[in-house]
Amino acid sequence: MDSDIQTYGSFHRDGEGYSGRINVVPGPTGRRRWPEHVKASIVLETYRDGASVADIARKHDISPPQLHAWRRAARDGLLPMPDDDAIEFLPVSVTSGGDAEPDDRGAALTLEIGDVRLLVPLGFDARHLARVIVAVREAS
């Protein structure tokens, strides 16, 4: 049976019993098992610049909530991720409380990466900031 074809059958019976239609739709049935290395590679795709979880899930024919669960498992250390530095988070420490207000230089956020200090103004584009952080980390 060709995977693009749906098969329909109608059954009629005189008397008691089933009288209706049966639709046979080919495709995966039941629960699929994903190897951990495949889950990890799909999770890594979601962390690329400009990637959307919904788009990546659609690409791999999985549901977005399932992909979010894999991302949560990776974040919690339950899904083994590759040893390369594909996902790395910066340590954060808060030195003053309250809402983000610009300091005397106009920065609402100060990031220190190694010996480099970034002063980030309010409203700075988060995607651009991510690219700046990657560039600073690679250079240092």
Structure description:
With 140 residues, the protein is of the alpha+beta class. It has two domains: 7-75, Arc Repressor Mutant, subunit A; 90-140, no CATH class. 31% of the residues lie in helices and 16% in strands. The protein has helices at 36-46, 53-59, 64-75, 126-139; strands spanning 7-11, 20-24, 107-113, 116-121. The strands form two sheets. A two-stranded antiparallel ribbon has the order 1-2. The chain has a two-stranded antiparallel ribbon with strand order 3-4. A hairpin with a 2-residue loop joins strand 3 and strand 4 (116-121). Helix 1 crosses helix 3 (64-75). The radius of gyration is 25 Å and the shape is elongated.
Which word captures the global form? elongated
The amount of beta strand, in percent, is 15-25%
Q: Which oligomeric state applies?
A: single chain
Q: Record the strand order, biggest sheet.
A: 1-2
CATH topology of the largest domain: Arc Repressor Mutant, subunit A
Q: Report how far the terminal alpha carbons are from each other.
A: 58 Å
Helix content class? 25-40%
CATH architecture of the largest domain: Orthogonal Bundle
The mean pLDDT is 75
What would CATH call the class of the largest domain?
A: Mainly Alpha
